[in-house]
Amino acid sequence: MIRIIGRIAAAIAALVLPVTFACAADINVYGTIGMRNALEQLTPLFQKQSGATLALTWGTAAMLTKRIEAGEPADVVILTSDNVDALNTQGKVAPDTETTLAKSSIAVAVKVGAAKPDISTADSLKQALLKAKSIAYSNPAYGGASGVYFAKLLDRLGIADQMKAKTKYPSAGGNSAGLLVDGQVELAVQQKPELMNIPGVDIAGLLPADLNKVTAFAAAVTASSKSADVAKALIKFLQSPAAVKVLKTSGFETE
Fold first, then answer.
1. Of the four, 50, 110, 149, 177, which is 20 to 30 A from 202 by CA?
2. pTM check: above 0.70
3. Segments of 39-182 assigned E as strands
4. Is 3.40.50.1110 the CATH number for 106-206?
5. Which residues of 207-231 are buried (b: 16+ CB within 10 A; e: fewer)?
């Protein structure tokens, strides 16, 4: 009788334990490509520390916001603060979970070995863009923060029409630095962390302070998350000294 009871208990455990573990371990994280490099470095650290497994989905903040609005099952969102605010307003974010992680400025890059143009003032930036044979920045139609802003900046500088014929866009979710490294363009404009983490790229400098746009990135637990405890633990981890160090070396400002 004891053996029979033992076998029944073992059979029940075999059926129940794997299911319980899988439900507790996996969370879906929707992250903007602006933070992809840093988050891909931090993911294995968090997984080792917590035992949880992250399922990562990448895209522009605007694209991911629309997907969450449509009801896709994310547990954590890591987007621009503006997009997280928009989701919060719609009740898509759990109360009191929105946390600013880092900030980033827009930069201009050249291929390693190429001469760096002077972009220290509005006029020198304008001249550098006009002299360049080709440039790349994120297609504003995809909603990336730097692409939307830079398109407006070209108009503000009065050179939008002159730049159209020599502008190339990366694919949706792509990085303009890829076109730079491939030799398709002379200058690439993007968030500094996105540019500096591509091999073969050299940062020429940030856009002039009076023309630059600082983008804040934030994380939050979604209102629909079924793993809120693990989601909150991830956000807490992203504020830890180890995570802050990775963010800084990846080109982000954390203070």
1. 149
2. yes
3. 53-59, 76-80, 99-104, 106-111, 135-137, 167-168
4. no
5. beeebebebbbbbbbbbbbebbebb
